[in-house]
Amino acid sequence: SEAEKDTKGCDVILWDGGNNDFPFYKPDLMVTVVDPHRAGHELKYYPGEVTLRLANVVVINKMDSAAPEDIQTVRDSIEKVAPGATVIDGVSPIKVDNPSVIKGKKVLVVEDGPTLTT
């Protein structure tokens, strides 16, 4: 598109990470989401540590369903490799548009990652 050709004329450029490990340009703000259900993986597996080191902001997600010791492990990892990052505590509540439709029924929720489905 024309906007892609003329970045001087753009106010905002959005990048959807999709399955890419890193953006194709240097962002003004790098946000990384960590999962305390996989505590320690943020440093153990690629590209976890790299994205954590690059982060300006780290969101600790799923805090409503993670064990306190796993949340602390993730906090310790953040402090170790990204001490200047802003840390945001997050949750992943399951919401239903019309709860009456499933009231009294067995429901299987399939989330986008394996940590809430195993």
UniProtKB/TrEMBL annotation:
This is CobW/HypB/UreG nucleotide-binding domain-containing protein. It comes from marine sediment metagenome. SUPFAM superfamilies: P-loop containing nucleoside triphosphate hydrolases (SSF52540). Residues 25-88 form the CobW/HypB/UreG nucleotide-binding domain. Pfam families: cobW (PF02492). The lineage of its organism: unclassified sequences, metagenomes, ecological metagenomes.
